[in-house]
Amino acid sequence: MDAGNGGVEKFDLEDRTFDFANNCKEFLKRVDKSIHNIEYYKQLIRSSGSVAANFIEANESFSRNDFSHRIKIRRKEAKESRLWLGLIDINGQLEAQRTSLIQEATELMKIFGAILEKTKIN
Length: 122
What we know:
Layout: H1 13-29, H2 35-59, H3 64-87, H4 95-121
Helix pairs in contact: 1-2, 1-4, 2-3, 3-4
């Protein structure tokens, strides 16, 4: 916790989205490379990486519409990441890690949704 902001933990979303993509990559290193998992593996790498990449692009957007569009893409990619995480066949040892990643994808979706709502209001 950061004492400088009233005891509220502050998150840097650029770091958080990078960590999400990196944590998905580390999770996938431990997943069985069966024929059907390979396709889910590729999709998860793309979607989790896109969450982070589109965060950077949103921060460099030229207009409010461009910013909103990038936020929508991030939310969509987080939702897709959650889907691929659920479809990958894993052994029981990886279930806690997968659950944590699904939770993070869900939280990111909610954050991006809140940003979109705030953008509409302003």
